Amino acid sequence: MHPYRVALLVTSLALVCLPTAARAPRHHPAKKPTFVAKVRPASHADQLYSSRALRRARTILQLRLLELRKQHLDRVRQIIERRLPVDTLFDDPPQ
């Protein structure tokens, strides 16, 4: 017999005889944790400097900067379209 046919026969027999090798592994449910972490009540200072509060403050500041940038770009567009005089470019933006 040709070596290629022998290898093909062995591979075919292995696939037929070992059906567990072709199956996907079974899903095992996650085990419940054996301990419960104790959470202490947060003080005012902890809440003020918590990662959530800092992230919220950073997001608010980023949004405000984007709003100011958009206002400035709108003023520049109006100046380019000659709706506003050029001198208003260097004035404080209206609130």
Structure at a glance:
This protein is mostly helical and 95 residues long. It has helices at residues 3-17, 19-22, 44-48, 51-80.
Description:
The chain has a domain of 43 residues. The mean pLDDT is 76. The radius of gyration is 34 Å and the shape is elongated. The termini are far apart. The chain is mostly helical. It is built from 4 helices and no strands.
Amino-to-carboxy terminus distance: 91 Å
* Gross geometry: elongated
What are the secondary-structure elements, in order, as H or E?
A: HHHH
Mean pLDDT: 76
Q: What's the SSE blueprint?
A:
Layout lengths: L2 H15 L1 H4 L21 H5 L2 H30 L15
Which key features would you list for this structure?
single chain, mainly alpha, elongated
